[in-house]
Amino acid sequence: MTVPDPPIVDISTLSLAEILPKPDSNVTKIPSYTRRDLYEERQTPEAGIGAFATKDIPSGTRIFCEEGILMLPDEAGQVELYNAVKALDGAREKMFWELAASTKPSKNVEWIDEVRQICDEDISSTFNDLIASYEQAWSIYETNRFTCKPLDNDAEKSLGIFPQSARLNHSCSPNVFHRYNPVIDRLTVHALRDIKVGEELLTSYIDICHPTAVRRHILKHWGFRCRCSACDSPDDDEDYRRKKIEDLFAKINKRRAKKGKISEKDCRRSLGNVVKCIRLLKKEGMEETDTLGLVYAEGVRLGMMIGDEDEQESMVEWAEKAVEVERKCLGEDSKEFIAAVHLLESVRNKNKSNDNDVDVDVSTKAERS
Ligand SMILES: C[S@@+](CC[C@H](N)C(=O)[O-])C[C@H]1O[C@@H](n2cnc3c(N)ncnc32)[C@H](O)[C@@H]1O
Asked: What sequence ranges are listed for the domain SET (predicted)?
């Protein structure tokens, strides 16, 4: 038996134009802000500058809502970057040059010939200084850039520098979550849980579902060895759980990407993976949009496809949790939050129509008796 895709508005079916404020609406562009009342930057013993809470910060608080000072397409190289930095106004250019530079020089040196051609006067000392500046700019860029690609994937600019957020250090058990929000054209950083005064605000630069050895390898790019609780944990079970999450998540995503009809058996199998994945994610405290939010939403979709009436209440609960996760990680102006609200409405409407069907049935029986 195959079941059709349910009529759910999920993230991949929403276009940006559908949720952007209409030109005649009163919604104005959100100003950039960083909640300097909540944190301060200071030097750490081993990780350069970091950001530390100066007050208790409740879970879900938006700490940054920041405009990029520089955004470039994925394929931009050293020359495009340097030109973009030189085109910044004085204050922004200074901000850029003050950021950390941790990555090693690029092995690709073709750009040096390009710079040589630009310099008519190839006076070697000046030229060498210039090359050093290009390399420093590139290292700053690689150390601090954030992905800005809107979910529509038609973005011209897709990597950006956000100077306040760039001071956030990494942890594989982060307490804040960052994401570029194309709806408001800002990078937002939200508290993932209650953060106590004095705690460092730590985001994750990488996919934290990977096991420790893989995370370590990827983090070499930033030139440090992570000493977070997940990386230093003597508990092998934790690594096992993350590997299991990664595998389950890959299976769930593979199913999600499949178009067309799906057998009920496959639906039930995938729903089983969703249930296991949710349990493990919670155990690991991994409550972000990219994992838990996505898994809840997929669970609801699968549950609606299967259509077991006694599971409908659980589907509403999961859809409500997906809304909570998106609100906490991304805020109510995000596309993900709006999609989760649509999903919740769909599942509630489906329940209502099921209840009405039951009513009709009952009244018909009553009339007959
Ligand atoms: C985006 S910057 C973060 C801010 C940086 N600490 C600074 O001084 O501006 C990334 C760099 O910070 C350092 N860093 C980030 N997280 C770290 C960690 N958990 N342990 C050690 N160094 C870290 C690394 O040098 C990394 O390349």
From this structure: 37-206
Ligand 1 pocket test, pick from 64, 222, 231 with the greatest ligand atom count within 8 Å of Cβ, gives 222
**Ligand 1 neighbour 222 (Cβ under 6 A):** yes
Q: Evaluate whether 2-22+235-368 and 33-230 have a shared fold.
A: no
HEC profile of the chain = CEECCCCCCCHHHCCHHHHCCCCCCCCCCCCCEECCCCEEEEECCCCCEEEEECCCECCCCEEEEECCCEEECCCCCHHHHHHHHHCCCHHHHHHHHHCCCCCCCCCCCHHHHHHHHHCCCCCHHHHHHHHHHHHHHHHHHHHHCEECCCCCCCCCCCEEECCCHHHCEECCCCCEEEEEECCCCEEEEEECCCECCCCEEEECCCCCCCCHHHHHHHHHHHCCCCCCHHHHCCCHHHHHHHHHHHHHHHHHHHHHHCCCCEEHHHHHHHHHHHHHHHHHHHHCCCCCHHHHHHHHHHHHHHHHHHCCHHHHHHHHHHHHHHHHHHHHHHCCCCHHHHHHHHHHHHHHHHHHHHHHHHHHHHHHHHHHC
Tell me, in angstroms, the distance from the centre of ligand 1 to residue 137's CA: 16
CATH number of 33-230: 2.170.270.10
Atom 26, ligand 1: residue with shortest CA distance: 222
- Most ligand 1 atoms within 8 A of CB, residue of 144, 146, 162, 169 to mutate: 169
Q: How far is the CA of 230 from the centre of ligand 1 (A)?
A: 17
CATH code for the part of the protein at 2-22+235-368: 1.25.40
The complex's ipTM works out to: 1.00
pLDDT tens readout for residues 52-79: 999 999 999 999 999 999 999 989 999 9
- Ranges of each domain in the chain: 2-22+235-368, 33-230
**Residue 118, pLDDT score:** 73
Mean pLDDT of the region 340-359:
79
